[in-house]
Amino acid sequence: MIAHIACALLYCLPALSRTAPTSAPPGTPRDPLPIAVPAADPNNASVAAEEDSGERRRLPQAIIIGVKKGGTRALLEFLRLHPDVRAAGAEPHFFDRNYQRGYRWYRSLMPPSLEGQLTMEKTPSYYVTRETPARIQAMADGNTKLLVVVRDPVTRAVSDYTQTLSKRPAMPAFEALAFRNMSTGVVDTGWNALRIGLYAEHLQRWLQHFSRQQLLFISGERLVTDPAAEVTRAQHFLGLRPLISDENFYFNTTKGFPCLKKGEGQGRPHCLGKSKGRQHPDIRPEALLRLREYFRPFNHRFYEMVGHDFGWD
Length: 313
Ligand code: A3P
Prior knowledge:
Distance between the termini: 27 Å
Strand content: 5-15%
Bound molecules: adenosine-3'-5'-diphosphate
Number of helices: 12
Helix content: 25-40%
């Protein structure tokens, strides 16, 4: 019973045992090269410096795999405050777009780390790309820890649309893209902004390659209202010391989001950039209502699969 309640509190997924990342996970591909030599480093100076300091680039042991517009940048920026976390800044898109470049290329994108530090990256499109579960499983015999930030799929779709609109202002209205026929309420289920929100369907694919204990679902909503609580769950799941807490955050009223009192490697407050926390356009209430109806059964299936009700309905 107690285990059951604990499991529910942890959304049933995080590993209950804490695995300290003191060594490379078993099954990390045996690369013939002891260290990745970055192709872009003409004189290998940085490699020599890495070796001198005992640091080297490693393949990630944990990946934020999704979802796009869920709050993935916020989670990574918060986690990288931790002294035992080293994270790639940009999204590598290795498992979906750059797989043919090989592990050596992938590793060269990772920051140097010391033994015992955890290397991470985030690429939100992994969660919805058909090939990625098998590929990530192949990297470390399925021992990679996976984090997914999920957010109400309707708000997520609006956020996704808002991002595209900022690049293509002449784009049709949200309602015109979300519905095949607005007056009859027929949803365009093929629209990518909606398809990404079918979390249960995507999860089904991941569960063919990973056990549920290897996936942690972070609430995108709670990451805004109580960032420390969600980061605490992530630290626990990753086997990290619980060093990031409420003390690290403040609410920036101008931005309307939590920000860091001190950014990574900085002594001053740090909020995410302008592309995070955009103003959404007004969407017709009946369109939002119809989309909520559409997602409800999928959301419920997802809640059952992960053992937690995210409260989107
Ligand atoms: P909006 O811009 O629609 O508000 P991602 O990093 O996965 O692209 O997600 C972007 C979303 O992260 C933003 O969507 C925003 O709501 C959310 N977010 C969560 N915490 C945030 C924070 N502290 N600062 C800014 N945005 C945050």
